Fold this protein.
Amino acid sequence: MARFGNPSRSRPAKADRARRPVGAAVELVGGQTRPQVCYGTYAGDMPEQGFRLRVALVEHADSFRMHAHEYSELCVVLGGRATHLTDYENHPLETGDVFVINGNTRHGFQEPQGLKLCNVMFDPRQFLSGHRDLDKMMGYHALFDLIPRSRHPKEFRERLHLSTAAMASVTSLITTMQNELEAKEEGWQTVVRNNFLLLVAFLSRLYTRQKRRHGTPLVRMASVVSHIQKNFRQPLRIEELARLAHLSGSQFQRTFKRTYNTTPVKFINQVRLHEACELLKDPNRDVTAVAMECGYSTPAFFSTQFKACVGEAPSHYRRRKLAELATHNVTTSPAL
């Protein structure tokens, strides 16, 4: 029986959790089958701390009890059918369905009939953070954020469904990742990471194409966030965002805060400050230039907002980051 992980003996409680399976299946690797045990923890399923991503092609002949895991999971139904179980609704799964499960979200399935799944298990902090192109995609916000966090059964049903042609493209990317993870030849991490991002972008595009004309509340809210990410450098008015969501100003404010646990104004400011933190690492940009590029009307207002959020003035942050980069470059430069 295959086990994934080598928990440290110095942390017995965590080690026990890593060794306590939440379920089992039959995994397909290189045309061969082997038992797969799911532990639901990083330590048990993805022990390599610097690269927490794993691809498993599995078959299920029996029901899989309700469970949760630390990591996120991108699931593609490669064949068969089953009933997907959640705390909010049970609904059918069929070949071509794609959905994302957030960490610590309870789920399972019952009555599988020839069910074959691809489970891409990953740490979103390592593999989805800081990708500006993804942040601009409506489908990305819907598929990888809003639907996984939704507590409304109707919204969870808005998952992506792949055509035969799209399934072939997705299967090709999955196969490449699985082969690289098994062989671990030179450069395998780069190949896996890039193919994973290709997969995420491809699925996000498909979602946008399938759902953009549906006009559901979830799609409209994802469109609003995508609009903010694309246009944060420009003045953004609440009335304009509310129109995109097909809501009144007050309805939009309430819905946005309920969805993102912050106000639209604070969300826009967070997006601008995140970009500012990246731009301040560029020695060719000064604080004033960064303030203007990130949509702030004056450097003084930018400095006030930056210090309130980050805890230090932008000039101090810039000097510290440039010093850290210089030190890193010196320590990593090859000896002559």
Observations:
- The longest strand covers residues 107-122.
